[in-house]
Amino acid sequence: MLNKKPLENKRILVTGGTGSLGQVIVRHLLGCEMGKPSKIIVFSRDEAKQHYMRVLYLKRPASTDEVIYNNFKRLLTFRIGDIRDLASVSEAVSEADVIIHTAALKQVPSCEYFPYQAVLTNVIGAQNIVRAIHESNKSVKTVVGVSTDKACKAINVMGMTKALMERIFIEANIDCPKTRFICVRYGNVLASRGSVVPLFLDQIARGGPITITVKEMTRFLLTTELAAATIFDAIRYASPGEIYVPQVPSARITDVAEALMNKKKIKINYTGIRPGEKIHEVLVSEEERYRTIERGRYYVICPMLPELGKVTIKKPALSSEYTSAKVTINRLGLRNMLVSYFKNDVSKGMCL
Asked: Largest CB tally within 10 Å, which of 45, 137, 270, 304?
């Protein structure tokens, strides 16, 4: 029987918890949608962001759907630490029943110029979590790794390191059999730090020009809410080693810009592809599609390791790779999808 509240009375560790996605996850956890946790631990290395996030929650008015005032000191805690540092990871992991791993270097050009730094955070960081669990006497029940479409058919450092993160977590199901390691993989999260929406809105507010790499550029798009929902659905339903991929719209970046312009006449400058960028992204590759099933609103990539293969796939869910080159949303659809961002200042990067 499905447990409708799998996080009830659980201690939840959110690595990278001060990031855009991390903050949305924390807000949902405080809403007790998956059950009321006994503790939520925000783990990151940025003390300033932790302080800002803590103060924001303390100043929020009490509401019926978030447990803040009476339970704040007991429920939501902050821990400074670096995912690269095994000792600080081990200390944080020792307090957790469930880990949501969002900590990452995710800017594609930055990772191209500092590839080893990307390895330290995205690869060694993931391995530190596995090692901390393996060496601990306490059992973490579930670990969710947050990945990206760039990990599929990777051509850039960021994608390569995220692909390795996926493989490290999938294999960890064998080394740490008491813990369920699963992943989610998706495209561009709207209004997250460094994404095109806050950049375009800022450029529009300044009167332009809007900068786009090339006209042909396409991307998968999803809201922070759907990104969080994917993580929670994976916690509910995923088997060890599975990768959850939401079925989301794909769009031309030029259409995103024009939807945000809202009929304003603003010049677009095409700047050329940045280091490491793809023109089109892929969420499920041609090779992976043979291991992919459909489960609700998700494609689920089953693990390739035979020790974890529990699903017999008679007919794959996809007939070809799942690529953003197949544009599925027009400007009107984008306008409706992006309407909330016209009313809010997302450039500040805080999604509380």
From this structure: 45
